[in-house]
Write a structure and sequence with these properties.
Layout: H1 2-27, E1 30-33, E2 38-41, E3 43-50, E4 55-58, E5 61-62, E6 69-71, E7 74-80, E8 83-90, E9 97-103, E10 108-115, E11 124-125, E12 132-137, E13 143-150, E14 153-160, E15 171-174, E16 177-178, E17 187-188, E18 194-201, E19 204-211, E20 217-219, H2 220-223, E21 230-234, E22 241-246, E23 249-254, E24 263-266, E25 269-275, E26 278-283, E27 289-293, E28 303-304, E29 318-324, E30 327-332, E31 338-342, E32 350-355, E33 361-364, E34 370-374, E35 378-383, E36 397-403, E37 409-413, E38 419-424, E39 427-432, E40 441-446, E41 451-457, E42 462-467, E43 476-480
Parallel strand pairs: 3-10
Antiparallel strand pairs: 1-2, 3-7, 4-5, 4-8, 6-7, 8-9, 11-43, 12-13, 13-14, 14-15, 16-18, 17-18, 18-19, 19-20, 21-22, 22-23, 23-24, 25-26, 26-27, 27-28, 29-30, 30-31, 31-32, 33-34, 34-35, 35-36, 37-38, 38-39, 39-40, 41-42, 42-43
């Protein structure tokens, strides 16, 4: 009898160690493969999605909720055997997203920018919006300036994007149009109370300043007297103050001051941009980029930024897009030649020619690590910094995102800066940067006539769409990109 008890005791000890080993193996990601008769070190997949409440299938099998865990604010699926798996994310009323994912032992394969687009997403026409040509959003505000062209006259309305209420017309001018230069746009003041309106009338370029809360309008051309102003920009820190160019000179002018003499900031300025508390400009004579403090004058010595000059054609115009001292782009508008200045940490600064011709615009991501740029038929991204989130990318690399046989328009970042919005004729599309397996490209909406503008209002997850005006019908509409949900539906 004592021998039997000892034997049973040894059996329990053996079962304890076996069970404990299995549990430890399981906790550390090992799973037993019955076909091969061995333990396999598994991997996992991590997903962040919009909307947050989704169904996930791996290799066409629905993953039950009990297997889904929340880790780093993402849905985590563990215990996956190393190798290739087919992953699908879906939600009712949305176009599903899918990719082939390569799972590695002990590593989480991350898909942290899954965006599902609503099915049959028909834009809602906004009333009293006939003959709308352009809309412009106030900075960090719900106000929209709406430009209309009707009966050879230009009208400017203000719309509250949140409740759709509308003020009375704040500006109108007969025999006039919004500036024909598509890069001279309505610009809101930093406090969202005033707008600069560039106008073409009788082949003359005029700039009006209109107030949102009062019916007051000021013709800026009269303020600067005999000068011919262009490229007007609000001072980001000082109220009622505007920067502008005249010939190749840069000036600053307080529109409320009684003194009629504008303040000369710099000569030989081909183009300029403002970032933070500095003004950056391209020297018209030597092709070098300089910067100066924003509250400066002609006596201030500028700081040289670039060591390499770009060839500046005296008859051509240029666009300078600044992120900070270490990242900016320069574009020759007539040819589309495109340069990028980049100074990664611990590396020498470089001014690179990214494209010899054809570039129509560029836009930095909010963190400055990516620069979106596009031609008539291509969309590309330049990475200024190493991107450590999967899929990883190296700094100073260019990635072509898409190429089309038809002209593309309205190219812009989405809120996560991992997708790009654009339009092809009358279709709004979105494409992801993630090129693992393939890039998902989806149609967001189709409208009856060609699209002239898309404005993303991410505070409410809404797109505003302007289509080609026809028969004086309302041509401004909106649609919601996705519906908000609780934290992963919990």
């Amino acid at each position: 009898m004592p021998h039997i008890r000892s034997f049973i005791f040894l059996i329990f000890i053996g079962l304890f160690f076996i069970t404990t080993s299995v549990v430890v193996f399981y906790v550390f990601g090992y799973r037993f493969n019955f076909d091969r008769g061995i333990f396999i070190y598994t991997g996992s997949i991590s997903i962040k999605s919009t909307p947050e409440t989704v169904a996930i299938r791996v290799d066409n099998e629905l993953i039950p909720e009990r297997r889904l865990s929340i880790l780093n604010n993402s849905i985590h699926i563990d215990g996956l055997t190393p190798g290739e798996h087919f992953v699908e994310v879906s939600a009712e009323g949305y176009v599903p997203w899918s990719k082939k994912a390569t799972v590695q032992s002990g590593i989480a394969t991350e898909f942290w920018n899954v965006f599902l687009v609503k099915k049959n997403n028909t834009p809602n026409i906004l009333p009293d919006t006939a003959s709308v040509e352009r809309i412009f959003q106030a900075p960090a505000s719900e106000w929209l300036a709406v430009a209309k062209q009707r009966d050879d006259a230009l009208f400017i309305d203000i719309i509250n994007a949140n409740d759709r209420t509308r003020d009375e017309h704040i500006f109108s001018l007969p025999n006039a149009t919004l500036a024909q230069n598509n890069e001279e746009n309505i610009e809101w003041s930093p406090d969202s109370k005033k707008i600069i309106i560039p106008v073409t009338q009788a082949d003359r370029q005029l700039y009006f300043i209109a107030e949102r809360e009062t019916p007051q309008t000021l013709l800026f051309n009269d303020v600067v007297n005999t000068q011919t102003p262009y490229t007007l920009r609000w001072h980001p820190l000082t109220k009622n103050t505007i920067f502008y160019q005249h010939t190749t000179e840069l000036y600053r002018r307080d529109t409320q001051a009684t003194d009629t003499t504008p303040l000369l900031i710099r000569k030989n300025v081909k183009t300029y941009d403002i970032s933070g508390k500095n003004i950056y400009y391209l020297n018209a004579e030597n092709g070098i980029i300089y910067k100066m403090p924003i509250n400066t004058n002609i006596t201030t010595e500028p700081t040289q930024i670039t060591l390499t000059a770009i060839p500046v054609h005296p008859e051509n115009t240029y666009a300078l897009v600044i992120y900070d001292d270490s990242r900016f782009s320069i574009r020759e508008k007539e040819t589309g030649k495109f340069w990028v200045y980049n100074k990664p940490p611990s590396l020498e600064p470089m001014l690179r020619t990214i494209a010899e011709r054809g570039v129509r615009g560029s836009q930095f991501s909010n963190d400055g690590k990516k620069l979106l740029f596009f031609t008539n038929d291509e969309i590309s991204v330049y990475f200024t910094r190493t991107w450590d989130v999967q899929p990883t990318r190296e700094n100073d690399t260019v990635v072509q995102i898409a190429r089309f046989s038809s002209p593309i328009h309205n190219v812009q970042w989405t809120e996560d800066y991992e997708h790009v919005l654009f339009s092809l004729d009358n279709i709004i599309k979105m494409i992801e940067l993630d090129n693992r397996d393939r890039r998902n490209i989806v149609d967001i909406a189709t409208v009856p006539t060609p699209i002239t503008q898309i404005l993303a209002y991410f505070a409410e997850n809404i797109l505003y769409i302007i289509t080609t005006p026809t028969n004086a019908r309302d041509n401004l509409s909106s649609l919601r990109l996705s519906e908000s949900s609780g934290f992963f539906g919990l």
